[in-house]
Design a protein that fits this description.
Elements (H helix, E strand, L loop, with lengths): L13 H25 L5 E6 L5 E6 L5 H16 L17 H34 L10 H22 L2
Helix pairs in contact: 1-2, 1-3, 2-3, 3-4
Amino acid sequence: MEEERPKITLIPTTADKLVDLLGWLILLALWGLTISHFSTLPDTIPTHFNASGEADGFGSKASIIGLPVIATLLFVGLTVLNRYPHIFNYPTAITEDNALRLYTLATRMLRYLKLVLVLVFGGIEFMTIQHATRKAAGLGAWFLPLTLVLIFIPLIYFVIKSIKEK
């Protein structure tokens, strides 16, 4: 039988609220960027980039709507999920003594990941528009390594902190 974990109402800090607000603002900017450039896009735009950041797939300009839709669904879904830290998976057992600290770490990690997610989707959208309007040649070779660093360094940091929590 599954353990019964404490259900705690976390009170976000000012920094937590700012990270959430910044994520929402970037998501809104992503939609604004997409809508404002849609009419100026050619009929065929890049829809996929390889690991070197070069466009290797093309499709209808209507496909430009896919990135903000997916970003919105993921961002909203993770926002809702973040309200239930007691259902997350943790590397250590949750007790009354460590629940507040582990739940706080986990919700901060998700906030950070949501922010990175909208930044990455925004960067892809921006560079797709730049490529489609012939202002750039692709994402650039730096894009994939930077994305991986932005995602995995904090994940490793938060997991290590959670493991050390007794």
